[in-house]
Amino acid sequence: MQDSTPSTPSSVALSAKLAIPKQPNKGISDAQKKALRIYASETHPRPTQRACAEWFLSQFNRHINRATVSKILSSKYEHLDTGFAGQNKRPLASRWPLLDEALYIWQQRHENAGFPITGPLIQRKAVEYWKKIPQYKDLDPPLFSERWLSRFKQRHSIRYHTSYGESASVPISTQTEMEAIRAICDQYQPNDIYNMDETGLFWRRMPNGGLSSKGSPGYKKDKSRITLAVTTNASGLDRMPLWLIGTAKTPRALRKLNIPSIGCVWRWNKNAWMRSDVMQEWFRSFYRHIGTQRRVVLLLDNFSAHLSALDNAPPPSNIQVVFLPSNSTSIYQPLDQGIIRNLKHHYRKKWMTWMINMMDRGVDPTQRMSLYYTLHWITQTWRRDVLDETIQKCFIKSTIIRPSTNGMEISQSEDLQLGDLYTQVTDRLPGTEVMELEEFLDPPDENLDVEEPDLSDIIIDLSEENAGGGDTQDSDDDQDEYIFGPPLDIPSRVEAIEYMDKALQFAQHQEGITEKDLRDIERIGHLFSRLQIDGRKQRRVDDYFGPKTN
User: Is the domain of 38 the same as that of 112?
Assistant: First the structure.
């Protein structure tokens, strides 16, 4: 017989409490706090604390009380409004700068290669490097303690997290962090959501993988690799100029080249890396590009060079910088969902077409290829060949943008018909072993730099930089040409005008050419004519005011 005694309110409440499993008391992440602060500041009229708590529950499936809302919205967390969390005072400079910089270079290389770096590993490497640095030979070594390690990591904004395979299952903490990031991005239009990422590019790699000339042994893959920094918004309508990082300040192939007019930026260092100093410059360029009137969010992976650069170049209040969770960028970073791959495939299509043209003329493509063509092709591809639709789909695939429907697939290679081109190239390389098409299009080692840095080279590089000579390096011309390609034979002004006249004659006899097309060609011809007239005027002025002879 059932007990018909009615339950009291207190017994109902007690039963409810017993029925709900106790949730672990997890802290609220900085990304979640930032999302709530953005919601409160951008919603008009300003929401009540109760409304904020309800919004937080809808976004993160978590109850918070009004006191917590008040605390999060207080001045205590104003630092989150400047763009990123964790802005602490940087520690004092290292007492051992050579060791500090050498360790940082080693750490950057291994982080770039995707290898996990632990505190004990840094400490062991510090002991090893100390013994090898001649300047420290007669000095007592420091105690490479936890305190020393902590200061080293703070100086270079190094943060370590538990390692997970990037394509494996994503840990729950990462999923929670991504919900917070999506909540932030939900408050921006696609035009105002940006992503930047770096990638390596083997700009001169052949299908047979080889480049050997002038007695140089083998293929100099390190010298034929540059780093690209790619930036776009989620709509694809605002693609910032590509940043290209090489290993020489001004290779002969780029001398006298008006690089800004091409639509890119060239920077260099000995390893062609995105170092903290280059990243600082990139940040400031991005801030200028956005200006002060727009509110935007910038998504980055938490590579230590990004963190360190942001410490020294913090964003203005209208720009939010959000770091994606560690070991998850292959899943959540929009540029890694197919945008960069599509960019490289278009580039390699141009490279293969050019190879075929050279070989049909009896010319070795590796002897004529230079960084000039790389700059021209990659910037042209970024502006014209990568479609807005591709960029939009990749942002959706990353789950940063939450559309009504998802699941759109992107196909690069099939659309570009690269298989036929590759066969034409390899057919012209008889007697050589060639790699598979997939390896040529997506080299597995393109983003890796795993070679152990030579400590003596690091010390020499640092000494040159400290002496102020690091940015004026000019390599041997023969070696420069081998590494970066030959300089171009630049046409004279007269020749350029003649070429434009011939181009106009050709266009006038082609079907499908419009009057506007002809006017565009004429406009370029007139521009060249003005350059010739200006050059003549300058020569006359120089002659008139030239030095007098006694």
Answer: no
For 527-548, write each residue's pLDDT tens digit. Answer: 878 876 766 555 444 444 455 5
Q: Are 320 and 441 in a shared domain?
A: yes
Task: For residue 411, give Cα distances in angstroms to 274, 396, 416, 468.
Answer: 29, 15, 9, 48
Report yes or no: 157 and 279 within 8 Å, Cβ to Cβ. no
Return the residue matching tokens 């047979």.
Answer: 208
Last residue of a domain, one of 467, 488, 509: 488
- Report the SS3 class of residue 268: strand
CA 533 – CA 550 distance, rounded (Å): 32
Please report whether residue 14 resides in a domain: no
Q: What is the DSSP string of 91-150?
A: PPPPS-HHHHHHHHHHHHHHHHTT----HHHHHHHHHHHHHH-GGGTTSPPP---HHHHH
Question: In this structure, are 314 and 395 located in the same domain?
Answer: yes
Task: Please state the domain count of the chain.
Answer: 3
- SS3 of 197, please? strand
Candidates 293, 294, 276, 295; CA nearest to 284 is 276
Q: In which domain, by residue range, is 175 found?
A: 84-488
- Residues 6 or more apart whose CB falls under 8 angstroms from that of 487 comprise 252, 253, 255, 370, 481
Quickly count: other Cβ atoms within 10 Å of residue 30's Cβ. Answer: 18
Tokens of 253: 């192939």
Of 488, 503, 523, which one is at a domain's C-terminal end? 488
Asked if 408 and 476 sit in the same domain, the reply is yes
Do 458 and 522 lie in a common domain? no
Distances (CA, A) of 471 to 96, 454, 465, 474: 23, 20, 7, 9
pTM of the model: 0.71
Asked if the structure places residue 18 within a domain, the reply is no
Phi, psi of 221, rounded to the nearest 5 degrees: -65, -35
- Which pLDDT does position 104 carry in this prediction? 82
For residue 174, being part of any structural domain is answered with: yes
* Contact assessment for residue 382 and residue 239, using Cβ atoms and an 8 Å cutoff: yes
Please check whether residue 197 lies inside any domain of the structure.
Answer: yes
C-alpha 182/C-alpha 332 separation (Å) is 11
pLDDT tens per residue, range 275-319: 889 999 999 999 999 999 999 999 999 888 898 889 889 999 999
- Burial code (b: 16+ CB inside 10 Å, e: under 16) for 428-456 equals eeeeeebbebeebbebeeebebeeebebe
Contact 43, 27 (CB under 8 A): no
- In this prediction, residue 233 carries a pLDDT of 98
Tell me, what CATH number does 51's domain have? 1.10.10.60
Same domain? For 261 and 408 the reply is yes
Q: Treating both helix axes as pointing N-terminal to C-terminal, what angle do 339-360 and 418-427 enclose, rounded to 10 degrees?
A: 30
Residues 78 and 88 both lie in one domain:
no
User: Which tokens belong to 495?
Assistant: 């020749």
Euclidean distance between CA atoms 91 and 148, whole angstroms: 11
Contacts of 284 (CB under 8 A, 6+ apart): 313
Q: 343 and 295, same structural domain?
A: yes
Spatial separation of the C-alpha atoms in residues 216 and 486, rounded to whole Å: 16
Among the listed residues 114, 234, 118, 232, the one whose alpha carbon sits nearest the alpha carbon of residue 167: 114
